[in-house]
Amino acid sequence: MNTVRGNDIHDHVEKRKPEIVSWLKEFIRYPSENKPPDGYEKDAQDFLEQECRKEGLITHRFSPESVEGITGHPAWLRGRNYPEGRDNLVAVWKGEEDGRSLLLSGHTDVAPFEPDNWEVCRPYDPLEKDGRLYGRGSADMKGGMAAAFWAVKVLKELGFRPSGDIIWEALVDEEFAGGNGTLAARLKGYNTDFAVLTEPSCMELCPACLGAFLGSITLEGNAGMPFTGYDIANPISGAARVIRHFESWSEEWISRHSHPLFTGSGKELKTMLWNIDSTTPGTSLQMGTPQVTKLSWIVWCYPGAEEEPFFRDVTSFWESVRAEDGDISRFNLSVEKEYHFIRPWETGSMNQDIQVLSNIYEDVLGLKPKIAGAPFSCDMAVYGDPGGIPVVILGPSGDNLHGSDEWVSLEDVFALTEVFAGFILSFSA
After folding, report:
1. N or C, which terminus of the chain has less Cβ within 10 Å?
2. Does 115 share its domain with 175?
3. Does one domain contain both 153 and 225?
């Protein structure tokens, strides 16, 4: 008979805090960077697999591209490489009975540490300071993964036996609009009655996340040098005009969209220009007026947005801009999709399991969680479809994600360890 109580979990986590920090530091020390088309998660996955086996969990490793039929799936992102060892890790704590199953999920890959202007510590030499743990991947998202892993470890040490399967997974290739790792796990059949995605939500309970459209605008003209007196339109100058129009369009896009789970500061939609390039693939760049200039962008969207209507509207907008703006009409202009559409997702906030998780959060922290949309895009939709799993995001606070001096709140990691353990206890008693 299971006799574990919330106070038992709290006392056990209190005693194990130094070990939790040491474990997370070791995890961070593995530079599991995603550098498309390649990724370097292998060593970190080897470490995690060894740790899971120590706890008696049943582990499974598999490459995303080994899953039957995956490369023909609409959500598959082509052009990624999966050498030996770049595998998903799924660890199963088998239930004693035929009870409900629960998934605790995260991705092992991290963004590259460049540009290298780190000041607090080196990216893979984590440093504990003022309640924060600094290091690449500390917040996105090894801190949340550590909390979920230690929740399982603590319950096992206390002698708890779940009625249904508890799955802890560490996926590859989420960054850079990836998702192939998550898709592979869902198509492989590791789907459960409920899932918690431990992305860094700043301790908000998020039954929804943003989606993201990714694309580019290319201006094409004639390359050359104006030595003979002929005017050569420079697409870099044209790109300056494109940026102004993009900013105006962004203000209008943001103003006409809203969602009840995305209110208040920081929850509004955002857009971003993230690259400008005047090289033509396969050719050398001359020291002169370039032939093309390409601007790459991201536009985030609320649940309910769809890809095809968006790109029809955007293409129409830029066609009208080219017709009306003489500085842009001198160039051929094209709008292209890049990567793939990261779908937004929403799980009904009145889902019974979300309500239970909210109650346990309140018991542990002494305050109700804020239930809101996560102001970032991630793989949440893949859990919901094709996985068919009701999913919520809950992860720690931190800052400088994808930037220098990334950090995670250690108190949040400890609190989440208790919350996740309490949720497993309630979910699978």
Report:
1. N
2. yes
3. no
